[in-house]
Protein 1
Amino acid sequence: MLIRQHLNLLLTKVLLPLLAIFSLKAVADRERYDGNFSLFVLHLITDHYVIIFIMTPFFFLCISKLYSKPRMVELIRMKKFYRFMFTKWLAITLFSCLFVGIIVLISIIVSIGLPLSNDWYSSLDADMMQYYMSTFGSPLQGVFYTVLFLFAGYSFIGCTFVTMAHFFSRKATYFCFGILYIIMILSIKVTWVENIPVITINRYIVLHHNFNGDYSLWWTIIAMVVLSLLQTFSIIQFWYWSPAHSKKLKKGLFFYFTRILWTPKLVLIWCTSIVVLAVTKAAFTEETLNDYFMRFFYGLPLGSTHVMTWLEQMIYIGTPIYTFSMFLQSWCYPRNIALFMRIQKKSVWGTVVLRHTLLLAVVYVILSVIILLIIGIFFNKSLIIDWFLLTYIILIKILELSCMLTILFILFIVTNRVTLSFLGTMSLYLINVFPVNWLSYNVAGIGQLARIEEMGRTMLEMSIISFVFLICMISIIKLTTYKYFERG
């Protein structure tokens, strides 16, 4: 009964988009394929881009449905807790069999009509097929072992996820698998990441990724066996141990605002806007990572009116400013008696919000650089980076964004109007359309590389100006915070 219940949770509607996407991909490949039946099935189930970017995310979405604490009605049916966990593992194993089986079934159906020969002749993926030709005697043998490896790999990953979810919190589990998924993506293009043993998930589900490098297939199998035994031992002996117990919330206004502001929704909004901009910049251009970073942060020279570039800059810099504006509108108002009655000094509130503005700028810029690096590697950008230039970009963009956020905060303190403060802050970018030389010192856009390349300014000059301006804004906030409370 428990196994059936777990399977009902796993077999969700999430699988329908997966089946549709994989079917369309298979039909598209079938149109330009001239090989035989078995080789085309092998091609579909060994496409590591499909496995990593389509199959694995949907698999994780399904497995996440099992993240739940056991109910009392379930526990009373088991004499030992590990037996309850074994039912989850068995359900995941059956689900992995169905998951891989459906993919193979679609591959077989799409392959109907091709010659039924079992040789290695094909015009598709000739380089990758060399690995299989040197390892297996026929395509059907390759199909069998590839399907078996996919089944074992997804079963192992799913059981590992459930085990981690038992011992750790939801956030810790999702964060860990998110990092592992990013490492798996990087391993496709970066050689030294590909050679990292044990933690690269692609080695457990993509068979031909074990055919090269310093670690053979046997090391992957040994790692799966050892980690599976370790999980079994941990569940049997230490099932009661869990650091995921509820912790006392940290006191103070800073941590209170932290729990409100720093949410998954905020990070999702940031990542979505950055990824869209990064992909549009990276597509259809062959260049180094250094050139890619320069194009992304280049901006516009004074007097230029290139609409698309201007919109890209407005979206990039406007996203964190907008999210901060929403925070001010929802949680910062002078009549919030329940909050402000606990503040001993009026200046504490301004200092706390100011610390969050600086933290927003630092996190947003660093997140941008990480996403650009991943997107650049994914689009085959050459791994050539001027680290001095990249350090300057990070520093000057943090200073620019910090200055803009502090301007928004000052306008909000003075006017108590979030919309007016946001529009006033973003309007500083509009004056850059005038070809006036002294506007190169405008903090709105001071982090754009065009100020250096075409206006003759130096990195040191731009950094000092933005830093001095930021110090002035911080001083003004310190002096004007009390006015915020005078409205009553």
Protein 2
Amino acid sequence: MEHALSPPTLSELRRPRPYPAVSVLTPTHRREPDSTQDRVRLRNVVAEAKKQLEADPSVTRERRVDVAEQLDRALAEVDLTHAEDGLVIFAAPGEHQVWSLARPVPERVVLSDTFLTRNLVSAQAAERPFWVLSVSADRVTLWNGGGDRVAEAHTGGFPLVRSRENFDAERMERIGDLPSTFRDEGTRHFLRDAHTAMTRLLRQNPRPLYVTGEPAALSLLDEFGGAVRDAVHIAHGGLAHASAEAVWQAVRPLHDAEARRDTAAVAGHLESARGHRTFAAGVDEVWQSAREGRVRLLAVEENYRVTVRDDGDHLVPAMSGDLDARDDIVDEIVEQCLEKGAEVHFVPDGALGDANGIAGVLRY
């Protein structure tokens, strides 16, 4: 199952497909007793997708069989023992993907000529993704971070591993020969290669970066300059060979502190916007501004959800299941704002006060 949404991946998901491109969304649960019905619910929504394929006269028999097979293959790949809060299946002629999201999604089936990506985009923004680069003299490991976890990332050429006869970086650490290890010309070349690979990846997929390693290793990276030098450095050795949990525990205090600073900065921007009359609050007002491309900064409380319908001029409250109800309007707004160059920040519940869960700073 997929978790990390990079800009190239998003562009690939958004390209037009031969009709039908099927998007299947269903909420999932991390714990019992709610998780016990996830498997049945997933099978039912996939069955509903197949029923819609059967009923659509514009879908040829050949394509119907192809996409149904892709749905079955996707279903077989789902591992609900590691379920998060939402699951998305994409299926089109000759291809399928399964995405696990750390953000709830409404249950729905969509047949179109593109995949429905708004829920992936919103989940990615809510997780505040970041990179962790853990360096040692013989291994450089990249970690994909977001939400409350990190996982090893096999992308951009990482991990980088260096082997050499009679070379034992861990032994050198134990006997105190580490500074000379990082002055070794071979080690310098190895870490310069890691620096080059990380710089290239940040151009393709920019995120905040944390770098962990012994002080001697971090000093060497400082000499190379660029984005890696400007990252947050954590003087903690051994993490290139460590577990994901150990890396997360090392990074978490700084990551949490950064999140608190971000929330405070967002509050300041919103307060200033009130004084300059460039403030919008509430789902209807923010939605109208987002459609017009006027939102410069969007703030959303982490668990804010609302179901609405469009009465032609405004969004009005609705019940899930009502005709024309829009259960994921918040995710729709997030995607619209990101596409038009706005900053999007998710903040703790209650942080927006009387703004009713969602607010924005307007360009004009």
Protein 3
Amino acid sequence: MHRDSGARVRPAQRWSARLALAAGLAAVVILLLFAGIRSIALLGAGLAGLAVSAASLWWALTLRGIGRLLAFTLAAVAPLAVLVLYAWAELLWVVLVSLGLWALGVSVGGAALSADREGSGDSGDGEPAGPPETRTAPPKHPFLIMNPRSGGGKVGKFHLKEKAEALDADVLLLDTAHQQDVVALAEKAVEDGADLLGVAGGDGTQALVAGVAARHGIPFMVISAGTRNHFALDLGLDRDDPSTCLDALADGVELRVDIGFIGERAFVNNASFGTYAAVVQSPAYRDDKVRTVLRTLPDLLTHRRGPRLAVQAADTAIDGPQAVLVSNNPYRMGDLAGLGRREVLDSGALGVLGVNVDNAAQAAELLAGRHAPGLTALTAQEVVIDADEPEIEAGVDGEALTLPTPVRCTIRPRALRVRVPRHRPGAPRTRAPMDWRRLRKLALS
């Protein structure tokens, strides 16, 4: 990261960086001092235990019957065997102290780097913290679609219909007893003069109505009344009290964000293909998720069932992946806490994540994270998913679909005008990925 001249390092950041470096160094010194040459063997045994556990989990997912039971047992026993080995060598306390110090260094160092990133005003990759806000006049004829069953009944619990109508919004409650075409309802509202479309519902419904708003160039409003509210999270909206989203009607600002499309169908979060999409299509999945996953995964992961996918993204081809995720802007992958989060919504690029694991050894290699050979992570403006079958199953913003091949995913940069409250919690920032060299520079600054 290049620090500009106006960014200052606070003393707390500097000392946090120094503490992190000291803890990391102490972890290595203690291991070498008390274990000596055996420290290499200890490290090797620990890595071997992790690799065996990862490989065993692969076997557990691809086998059935007694083979699956033995694989799950091995996955649980492997790390315990490593701990027994450390105790037998009378070095368990050394390993635990060293791991504790290393964890302290990573935790404190990550906090220092995150504070440093916020102080410099970027996301850590040279990107602005979020799309710029524009003050615009309140809508005169807002039209809101609300699903009374979404999120376990949040529309009724938070009296969203009554509060929206008090702000002069036209509200349509979906009839949950019958299937309704929300796209047609939104198009009719625009035809009747609506100058803002909004949804209190799940991300799938949000995406369909957002597509209508983008096509007509009018603002779209998200009301976080769904179950997961991933789009609302990345917009920085309050997911605990969806009624606060209605503040945008009277005192709001406008953001310009990207929107993804599969053909002409919009998506605001992601589209998944392959294993996960096939599992959720099963009629039994809703009633018994765990049993359905364990029953269907062996054939899907080993290509005995389902189409063989072929993905083309920019200049990269991914042949035969078990799972593909195409997202409206890339998800963070630098740390576990960042998974499922997007730093920005206006980068103008789709995120692509492909997983291709054919055996236990490749499953163990996934421990390397984004650098694993079986994991492909990249960005592109267009992604084409083809298959050896005329149709493939897909999960689009949580909605299960069957699509004709090839499937073409595109992104329209800054095509969606989103109206949000001027005062809102803001998207929680993910921790910066650990970088010991950056940490050393910060400590010496």
Protein 4
Amino acid sequence: MTDLERRTITIGRDDQRAVLRGRLRQQRVVFALLAVVVALMVIVGALSTVGRPSGGGVALVVSGCAGVAVVLALLVWSQIALTRRQLPLGSEFSLQVTDDTLDLDGPGGSDRIRWRQLSNLRRVGGGIYLTITPSRAQLGLPGRLLGESALARAAELIAASAGTDTVEHGFPASAPVAGALASSITFTVEDQRIVRTALILGSRTILAIAGGLGLIAVGCVIGAAAGLGSSRMLEVSAMAAALALLLLVVLVVTVHHSVRRSLVVGTAQTLVVTTGALELTGPGGETRFAWNQLSDLRRRRGVVTVRSVSSKTTLAFVGRLVGDDMFAEIAQRIEAAGAAPTG
């Protein structure tokens, strides 16, 4: 194995902005569709006001534009949140291109991703983006982390490995050290259902907002029926109900696609508890999480979750992957690492 290049950088705001701008530029089709929807709303609203000075068309345009604005805000917010989670400000990232893997060390752990799992490598603005298969998850990195020679070499390695099988069994597990706890499963449709349900029910903020909008809609309908307000209350009710429904649809669709990408049916995932870290091997590659970077281990609704301290993300595992003995061992090691001095 020959090392081609290694670079280490500290993430600054310019890095976050560069990656975010690249992500948004890749959403141009979505933005164009939203613009078309707004244009259609304006046309329909204008036509509906012909010979009808009641202002109903204006209300339709306002409602439609408000819905589009919510979708746009959610899209931009999700990209901002994703960029901040993947690239925490002030964190240190190190990247190494080798003949066999792309090695990435960051605050969330250490990843070794084989070239046959990567595709769509490209530089967009100040960021570099590639897709991890079979999960289809996109990885965005600051452009200064990968030089031009390393980028060209990475493209060659990805192209050379494009014909190899990437789905049948995922990655082979690393050999666990003596005395280490290890568990391995193959993902099923039931696993997807369990994780999907847990993630939706765990999205308390979005569910609370949707519930509040639903209460506003119901209250307006009751008020209009009781004659306590004008007919405008029905328009407000319709708008609130539409926004609540839109939030729920976005939540369900986002979770569905995320689970389908990360838990590909028929692929394997292995979890190994070692002295220094929690090691995960799955369809997306091999990742190592140091114990002092983990916290808040929980088992709920058939899913085990643990918090990554540095990247501020929650890792979710299918409950049957983590047995009671392994769960207790993980909890003990996290507690011991948290109590140990870090300086």
